[in-house]
Write a structure and sequence with these properties.
The protein is an alpha+beta fold. It has one domain. It is 38% helix and 30% strand. Strands 1-2-3-5-4 form a five-stranded mixed barrel. The N and C termini lie far apart (58 Å).
Length: 127
C-alpha cells in the first residue's frame, strides 16, 4: 500500500511540474546576446545604448562590466540580455552577474507577457 502511494505522489509531482512548465510557456529556447543592465540597454541614462558614454564620466568604473554591476546595484537597474535591438529581463541576477558585459548563450523559457527569461543556464561564447 505504501509503495502505491509513493508512486502515486511521484506521478502527481511529475505531472504538476510539467503543467507548470506548460502554463509558463514551457518551451525552452536558446538566446545569444550580451548581458547588460536595463539602464544602459534601454537608454535610461545613456543615449547610445552602450556603456562607453557612462564610462567617459569616470564614475561608473573602468570597464563595461563595472558599469553593468554599478547600474544594477546602485541605480535600480536589472540584468538584461541584449539581442540585436531587443532587451530581455533575466530572472536570475546572481548568475547574470557572473557574465556582466559578456557575450553569452542563455538557455531558458521566455514569458512574452513580461519579456522575462526564466534562466536555466548561461554560458560565455566567443565574441
Amino acid at each position: 500500500m505504501r509503495t502505491r502511494r509513493s508512486i502515486l505522489w511521484s506521478a502527481i509531482a511529475v505531472i504538476s511540474a510539467g503543467l507548470v512548465a506548460f502554463a509558463a510557456g514551457g518551451r525552452e529556447e536558446v538566446f545569444k546576446g550580451e548581458i547588460s543592465d536595463s539602464q544602459c540597454a534601454l537608454n535610461v541614462h545613456s543615449s547610445t545604448h552602450s556603456h562607453a558614454e557612462m564610462l567617459k564620466s569616470g564614475t561608473m568604473g573602468a570597464s563595461a562590466a563595472d558599469c553593468v554591476r554599478k547600474c544594477v546595484k546602485n541605480f535600480g537597474g536589472s540584468y538584461v540580455l541584449v539581442v540585436k535591438d531587443k532587451a530581455y529581463k533575466l530572472d536570475d541576477s546572481k548568475l547574470a552577474d557572473k557574465y556582466a558585459a559578456q557575450k553569452v548563450k542563455v538557455t531558458g523559457v521566455l514569458n512574452e507577457e513580461t519579456n522575462t527569461i526564466a534562466v536555466h543556464s548561461i554560458e560565455a561564447v566567443a565574441p
